[in-house]
Amino acid sequence: MVFGLRSFVFAAALVAATPAVAADVVHFAPHRAVYDITLTKSASGSGVAGMTGRMVYELTGSACEGYTQNMRFVTRMSSQDGTETINDLRNSSWEEAAGKRLRFSTTQYTNDVVVESSQGDAKRDTATATANVDLVKPAKSKFQLPANTYFPMQHAEELIRAARSGTKFVSANVYDGSEKGTKVYLTSAVIGKPLSAGAVKDSAALKDAGRLATLRSWPMSISYFETGQDKKDAPPTYELTYDFYENGVTSDLAIDYGEFAIKGELKQLTFLPESACGASEH
Questions:
Q1: What is the mean pLDDT of the chain?
Q2: What phi and psi values does residue 165 have, to the nearest 5 degrees?
Q3: pLDDT (tens digit, 9 = 90+) per residue, 212-268?
Q4: What is the 3-state secondary structure (H, E, C) of 6-67?
Q5: What element of type H or E holds 226?
Q6: How far is it, in rounded angstroms, from Cα 122 to Cα 192?
Q7: d(CA 163, CA 112)
Q8: pLDDT tens digits, residue range 183-227?
Q9: Nearest in space to 17 (alpha carbons), one of 109, 143, 113, 126
Q10: Is the dihedral of CA 156, 160, 165, 171 positive or negative?
Q11: Which of 131, 130, 108, 110 has the alpha carbon at shortest distance from 119?
Q12: Which of 15, 120, 189, 261 has its Cα between 20 and 30 A from that of 167?
C-alpha cells in the first residue's frame, strides 16, 4: 500500500510455496498503528504545494485463521493555486496462510466522491501455484495470475525471513487487488543491516511500545515498477521505505512518488488481543 494518491497497500508481499520450518516461523502481532502524514519533497511542476494527513493501519488474525488488514489513508493536498483536495483511500483484505487465497476491497474517494474501487477474490491453484482472480469491481471479469505472483502478507513474511538470513535483495511480483484490481507490480526490495532492539523513535509515547524493546528490525526500501518496465530502465512508480520489526510493526515510513514525497510518523501503536491459535504460534 498503496497508499494514497496512487494505490498504496501498507503491508509488503512474497510467496512461500512450502511450509516454514519451526525455527523460521514468522509471527505477526495483531496491532493498530496510526501515522501522521507530511510532505517532504515537491518538485517544480508537480502541482503539490502542501500535504497533511493520517493513516490508520490495523492487522488482526493469525497464520492459522488468516490475516485481516484494514487501512484508511486520508490526505489534504493543496495545489500551487491554493485549491485543496481531500483523498481518502480505504482498503480491506483477508489473506489465507501460505498465499492460498486473497479477498480484497479497495475504494478511493476524492472530495467525498468515489473515483476508483476494486473488489475481488483470488484463489491459488495448489498444483500449478497460479492464482485465479474473480473480479467483481470495477467490472466483472476472471483472469489468471502467473505462478510467481505474491500476495501481501506472503511478501511481508518472506521479507522477514530474508532479513533474518542476511539476504539483502528480494525481487517479487506482487498482487494486492489495487489499481482497478488488475495490476501486478514487480517489486525490488533492499534490506539494510539490522537495527538495535527497541530503536523505534519516541517509543515512550506509544502504548505497549515496550514489546518492541527485544525485537529485531531492519530498514527496507521497496521499489514498485510497472510490469515490464524493469527492462526499460524506467524509474519506479513509487518507492516505499520503512523500518520493519519482525512482528510486523513498521516505523519511519516514507513514500516517494517521484514528483513528490511524503513521510509517515508513527504516533500511536496499540497491540490487539491475540486469537487462541495466534497465541499458540509463538
A1: 84
A2: -85, -5
A3: 888 899 999 999 998 765 556 788 899 999 999 999 999 999 999 989 999 999 999
A4: CCCCCCCCCCCCCCCCHHHCCCCCCEEEEEEEEEEEECCCCCCCEEEEEEEEEEEEECCCEE
A5: strand 217-226
A6: 32
A7: 40
A8: 899 999 999 999 876 555 555 566 666 788 888 999 999 999 987
A9: 126
A10: positive
A11: 108
A12: 261
∠ CA 237-33-221, rounded to 5°:
30
List, as own/partner pairs, every contact residues 170-175 make where C-beta atoms lie below 8 angstroms and the sequence separation is at least 24, other chains included. Answer: 170/14, 172/13, 172/14, 172/15, 172/148, 173/146, 173/148, 173/149, 173/227, 174/12, 174/13, 174/14, 174/149, 174/150, 174/224, 175/102, 175/122, 175/131, 175/133, 175/145, 175/149, 175/150, 175/151
Q: What are phi and psi of 38, to 5 degrees?
A: -140, 155
The answer to whether the CB of 50 falls within 8 A of the CB of 39 is: yes
pLDDT value of position 6: 41
Contact yes or no for 2/244 (Cβ under 8 A): no
**How far is residue 214's CA from residue 198's CA, in Å, rounded to a whole number?**
6
- For residue 80, is pLDDT > 80? yes
Cα distance between residue 225 and residue 240, in whole Å? 12
Domain coordinates in residue numbering, the chain:
22-279
Give dist(CA 68, CA 59) in Å, integer: 6
Torsion of CA 127, 19, 198, 29, to 10 degrees: 80
* Residues paired with residue 40 on neighbouring β-strands, in sequence order: none
Question: pLDDT at position 174, please?
Answer: 94
Element containing residue 109 per DSSP (H, E): strand 101-110
Q: Note the pLDDT of residue 279.
A: 59
Residue 230: predicted pLDDT: 55
